[in-house]
């Protein structure tokens, strides 16, 4: 059992931290840099590139429960290794795309790869390996992968400028084959990594526990759907939103650049200062920070940088809670499948968030923050109703 050897937990955390950073940089964060050159080269409107990306997120949501179930049964080495191959294939096909059909097909494949290889799969792998002791490993992985955009955006932009967007996609495909795949093959095998035995309730307790469990799962699904809607909306529209408050483009871009460091800083605080607190505490704090920043900026004139940092800190904490809160509430048994169902609505929310928030931003300007703040206040209300130790 890996829980008896902390050194192996550190090593597994480091391996997944590296591969998660590269996987996020080469998939989820790719359209922000390459959407315009792809659209120009293929002769299509830019929004069609984001439509293909939204398709990939819907596919990620659909495959998530199946991926989690397979990791519960067989561990993460095979699934994460396959994710490297699938992402490489999708990126290679994207580099060869000549029109909308090729674009949609390549992003559909990338969507399957994201389901197999992003946070949910990594969290399920860690939970299968370390059981309830996986919290620090999950936090450590998110702490490292918080630099995915910091690494990915400048590198992708440079590759596009120096060689072209097709070559940038091929570069990332090669990275998956030469870096991520070998690292994933170093993960523990099916029998070696099984730390989970049983967390299931006794038969006499099962009926009472199931009602609480179903309600709690539905509540968490809403919490993370709201959080992912807001984070994706801000990722797509933050500079434009800040300009609606009256700041210049340069100021808006500079403020937006603080989101990443704020995310990492909040994750580090969770890793150190909040490691003994229940994950519910971090989740509740996370849902407050974006609405607090919006109120201070719109009503009291707080600088845009302050809002960006509060939003980033909340998003950073909520990302950790997405992995650690279900583990704390439900235990490690069946974690992957359960996580797939809980996060599926969040992926759907991500798919529609840029378009829907863009419509609201056009209609209401900075008033669109009422939508995001209301969603997160609703999430806070749900979290306040969830008990730290539901019936089990």
Automatic annotation (TrEMBL):
Keywords noted in UniProt: Cell membrane, Membrane, Transmembrane, Transmembrane helix
Subcellular location(s) per record: Cell membrane
Keyword Cell membrane: yes
Topology with respect to the bilayer: Multi-pass membrane protein
Keyword Membrane: yes
Membrane-spanning residues: 12-35, 47-67, 79-98, 104-126, 215-235, 247-269, 281-302, 367-386
Residue stretches making up the Major facilitator superfamily (MFS) profile domain: 12-391
InterPro entries assigned: MFS, MFS_dom, MFS_Efflux_Transporters, MFS_trans_sf
One Pfam family this sequence matches: MFS_1
Record-given protein name: MFS transporter
Organism of origin: Halomonas tibetensis
Higher taxonomy: Bacteria, Pseudomonadati, Pseudomonadota, Gammaproteobacteria, Oceanospirillales
């Amino acid at each position: 059992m890996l829980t008896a050897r902390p050194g192996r937990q550190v090593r597994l955390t480091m391996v997944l931290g590296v591969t998660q950073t590269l996987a996020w940089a080469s998939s989820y964060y790719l359209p922000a840099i390459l959407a315009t050159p792809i659209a120009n080269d293929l002769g299509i409107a830019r929004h069609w590139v984001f439509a293909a990306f939204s398709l990939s997120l819907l596919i990620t949501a659909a495959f998530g429960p199946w991926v989690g179930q397979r990791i519960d049964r067989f561990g993460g080495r095979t699934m994460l290794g396959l994710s490297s191959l699938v992402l490489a294939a999708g990126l290679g096909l994207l580099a060869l795309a000549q029109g909308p059909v090729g674009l949609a097909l390549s992003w559909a494949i990338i969507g399957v790869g994201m389901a197999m290889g992003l946070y949910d799969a990594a969290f399920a792998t860690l939970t299968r390996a370390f059981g309830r002791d996986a919290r620090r490993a999950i936090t450590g992985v998110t702490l490292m992968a918080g630099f995915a955009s910091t690494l990915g955006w400048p590198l992708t932009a440079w590759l596009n400028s120096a060689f072209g967007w097709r070559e940038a996609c091929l570069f990332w495909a090669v990275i998956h084959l030469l870096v991520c795949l070998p690292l994933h093959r170093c993960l523990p095998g099916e029998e070696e990594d099984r730390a989970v035995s049983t967390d299931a309730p006794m038969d006499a307790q099962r009926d009472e526990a199931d009602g609480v469990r179903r309600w709690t799962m539905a509540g968490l699904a809403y919490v993370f759907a709201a959080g992912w809607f807001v984070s994706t909306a801000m990722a797509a529209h933050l500079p434009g939103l800040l300009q609606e408050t009256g700041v210049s483009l340069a100021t808006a871009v500079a403020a937006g650049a603080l989101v990443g460091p704020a995310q990492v800083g909040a994750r580090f605080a969770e890793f150190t200062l909040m490691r003994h607190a229940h994950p519910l505490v971090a989740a509740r704090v996370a849902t407050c920070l974006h609405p607090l920043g919006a109120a201070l900026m719109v009503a009291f004139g707080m600088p845009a940088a302050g809002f960006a940092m509060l939003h980033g800190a909340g998003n950073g904490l909520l990302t950790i809670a997405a992995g650690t809160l279900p583990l704390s509430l439900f235990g490690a048994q069946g974690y992957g499948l359960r996580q797939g169902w809980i996060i599926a609505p969040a992926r759907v929310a991500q798919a529609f968030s840029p378009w829907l928030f863009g419509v609201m931003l056009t209609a209401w300007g900075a008033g669109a923050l009422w939508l995001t703040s209301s969603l997160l206040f609703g999430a806070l209300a749900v979290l306040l109703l969830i008990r730290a130790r539901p019936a089990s």
